[in-house]
Structures
1.
Amino acid sequence: MSLLRELFQGELPRLVMFDLDGTLVDSVPDLAVAIDKTLLLLGLPAAGIEQVRDWVGNGARVLVRRALAGGLQHEHIDEARTEQALELFMQYYAENHTLTQVYPGVRSTLDWLREQQVELAIVTNKPERFVAPLLDEKGLGGYFRWIIGGDTLPQQKPDPAALLHVLQLARVDAAQALFVGDSRNDVLAAKAADVQCVALSYGYNHGRPIAEENPAHVLDCLSGLLRSAEPTLLPGLAG
């Protein structure tokens, strides 16, 4: 039995919601280019891809504030500076997504779910204006019935509002839905919405292992949803 069916007592969920960045696509290279252009124009040193990888996950505004601060803590950055940098970043990021790559196993998994008539949705903290064009550009645009961006609603993940909104649109109970993400915000949002959460190990979680957040399962590839779940051996029982 596949992991997906095991999570739902032998059945398939009616709805699967996905985070985008760090879950379906590796967008950090393009985000880093836009951040570095912004910083250099403002007379600040470029951050580089590895730092940006640790900063993403809380939407464009927080990413920009972290870049201005040079770290995760950004409370001291004022709003005027934020607005200036955010406008530049949004302009630069809209120009190019050529470095963004779809992760292995994503297309085959989405194809299978669509064939099984499972409803699919995107719930991301990325500004909504970028989501549909990026999906179309990467060949993922035809899979998702609903797209919720970071500015679609007043709240962002880890608030559960976006997940609850999709559940309402789909007319699906939380017990019949799954959320797939890669960060602490994703796991917290799913738990707050009473939706099961599977997390990907390769995504963006501020440098911390996603297993620390105790999702229902951690996968190294999205296609692991469709494979049989391997039993977890307790320490001292392996071998």
2.
Amino acid sequence: MKRLGDDKNPRRRCGLCGAVVVVGFTLLLSGCGYNQQGSDRNKLEGGYRWNSLYREDVQTVAVPIFTNKDFRRGVEFRLTEAVQKQLELHAPYKVVDRERADTVLEGQITEIRSLTLSRDYRTALPREQMITLTVDLIWKDLRNGRILCQRKGLTQSGVYIENLGEGEFVGAQEAIERFALAIVQELQADW
């Protein structure tokens, strides 16, 4: 005996659902109006535009070694190198020397602070510590002298645990890596 509903094949239903989803998705995408910014259709038609997050009038940037007002030395070299690497990885700008650059990104480390977050309850020695870097930035257009971006008092922190053999170098490196990415994100174009 045949039961009600036995004549419906589950595979056939799944294939039909998949086809409906694909057709619906195709119709949705074709009707949204997304265009890439470089296409000629953008100039003629309205709709959404796909723009870069970064300035399109800048091709190259020079990043001289950041200055350091703090007594801890060496951090400025590591931060400069990290910023240069993050620019190459995440931004469309090419890092070049100052003579060939459209712009220059200068930074100054104004303060490096260490803070104890927790202590060993038996010995009262520092257990978890945090190092915080504070930086001032200025990004200038070398072609016309205009300031493209200026930020004062940017901070970033890194944590290290001395009991695990980590020193201040480890915490500073964590803060430097985070800071470099944050600095590159600061160079995004204004909306």
3.
Amino acid sequence: MTYSEGHFDAIAEDYDYWKKKNAYYHENLKALYGSYIPKGERVLEIGCGTGDILARLEPREGRGVDVSEEMVEIARQKYAGKPNLQFEREDIFESTKSFGYPYIFLADVLEHVGDLGNFVQQLAARTDSGSTVVISVANPLWEPVLMLAEKLHMKMPEGPHTRDSIQETERIFRACGFTLAERGFRLLVPKKIPGSDWINARFHRSPLLRRLGFVVYWVLKR
């Protein structure tokens, strides 16, 4: 069993409940990936959970993989009527075969992999030259807030995780052969409150506020 497999198997039944509880964040995450991955493409999601982001992208061919068989089974049931979507239980360490997809994305996955350097190395080794990889994580600066929210039952239980710094994560990306095409921040206010849309559309213009965004994302090229 991998670093987080048992945790996500255990919370799979309540996973969609937590996503609905924090719908503002998850809808913005879908919009983020939609802005970098065009509709009608061939897309791979690593750490697909129950499949909602991949489905929203409307790929011509979408494959979602996850270490949690329970998550994958829920995704299969939810999207059984979508023949363009395929969901499978897979740990990327279990194969060396090329992924073969021009677009790959990982949402809230890196903090759960255990050994980030080894994981990114495997990711790079299986990513074709010319592919685009889009990755997002919660900003490490928000960790105290996230842990408090979990204790107050305001968010999904995080389970085993490690939040590497932005600088260390980017060092690993480059060391493993990725080119950093873009880094950005989203959602200074990750909950829907009066004014949140206005703030979130503008805060990144400020050099002082930009790095405080709740979401950190990268666009990588291989």
4.
Amino acid sequence: MAISAKGAARRKARVRKALKARAYGRPRLSVHRSDKNIYAQIIDDASGRTLAAASTLDKDVKAQVKNGSTAEAAITIGKLIAERGTKAGVSEVVFDRGAYIYHGRVKALADAAREGGLQF
């Protein structure tokens, strides 16, 4: 069953609204996945800045990962975003899954970020 763009936007807005209500000033770990790649950002919504970012398009990750659309690639990105986040001084975040269900690559990225040291 295909998901309409309107429905996805509505779900994304609903998830974001719930996150902001319980964020308590913590930065947001936002995940975007496409058919070929996965992206993660730690965003400080108060100042509107991106504190850390990682994706399968990074040169060092591209050399490690054969295909950017696998769970293994998501695990690599999860560990990398946790490392870059702690380097930027972030230890606690709220997880923004966007319009995606918490399953597969999104769940793999979240679990790897937790193992890497981020708390959410």
